[in-house]
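Hi everyone, sorry if this is the wrong subforum. Our group has a chain we'd like a structural model of before ordering constructs, and none of us has done structure prediction before. Sequence below.
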Amino acid sequence: MEFAVSRDGTTLVTLHEGTDTTARDEATDELTARLESIAADGTISAFEITDATVYEHPAAPFDPYTITVEFTVEVVVEAADDADAEELGATAIAEALETAEVGSISYTSSPAVTAD
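Answer:
Right subforum, don't worry. Here is the predicted structure as tokens:
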């Protein structure tokens, strides 16, 4: 049986930008590009970026911003039941994010399973 498994999380993106707004926009664009690459090859079925906030301002000129970006990722898995789908989906999401080189991930929810 097919199940959709989704999970919410955050990641930290470090980059050099001129203002809080451009730093948040660039961090969102960077994560979007990474997630689009794994969505295009079918690794994930959907994603959404829900927020970006400044985690750490530059301490001196030419220091980088660190931005927290919140996201939701979904995969579709074949499994016998909800419990198997949750485990398979969580593993598939973790592997997909690793493939996309999304680091510093903190999951903010347990995997959510929906029969497809």
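For your construct planning: The chain is about 35% helix and 40% strand. The radius of gyration is 16 Å.
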